[in-house]
Amino acid sequence: MMKKFALILLVSMFACTVTAQSSESNQQGSGLGNSELYPWIGQYCMSFFTKTRSAKTVGKGHVSVSLKVQHFDWNLIRGADDKYHGRSSGQLKRQLSTVLCTKYGWAEDHHLAIGIPYLFNDYNLTNPNDSQGLGNVFIFEKWNIIKETNNFPAVAVDFWYYLPNGDTDRKIGSDDSSYKITTVRLFDL
User: Fold this and answer.
1) Does any domain span residue 39?
2) Of these four, 51, 62, 120, 128, which has the most CB atoms within 10 Å of its CB?
3) For residues 99 and 169, what is the distance between their CA atoms, to the nearest angstrom?
4) Which domain, by its residues, includes 163?
5) Rounded CA gap, 61 and 104, in Å?
6) Does residue 153 share a domain with residue 72?
C-alpha cells in the first residue's frame, strides 16, 4: 500500500513539474510589460489526494465533467485514555464515496454545477450497515468576484444548496435540505 502511495505521489509531482516547465518555456523571451501577468499566474497543480478548490470558473459556454472518488476507513477509535486504538477484531467501518459533478459556464466568471454523490457503506459494528445509494444531491453557483493579478489573489464565492434526498437511517446523507456560502482564495500572500 505504501509503495502505491509513493508511486502516485511521484507521478503527481512529475506532472506538476512538467506543467510548470512548459508554461515557463512558453513565456520566456516574451518580455513582461506593465499590464502582462507573470508566467506562473493561473498555473497551479491539481491534487490527486484531497478535494481541490479553486477560484476559477469553467468559462462561458464551456462544460466540465468530473468524477471524484474517496475511500474512508475509520480503523481507529478514541479510548477512555483519550488516545486512539485499533478497533476490536472483526470490526470495521468503511465508506466509498463517488461524486459525479458537472459544471456549466453560463456567463463570464460564473458557472452552475450539479453534484450527484453515490455512497457505499460497509460497517460491521453494533448496528451493521452494508447499504449503498444516492447521497444529498447538491447544486452550486460559483462567481469569480476578483481575478488573479500579479499582486492580488483571485477570490470566488460559492452558493450551495443540498437537496433533501438523503437517507439518514442508512447513513447515506440527510433527509433535510441545507445551504451554505463559501469563499475561495487562490493563494495566500
Assistant:
1) no
2) 120
3) 21
4) 50-185
5) 7
6) yes
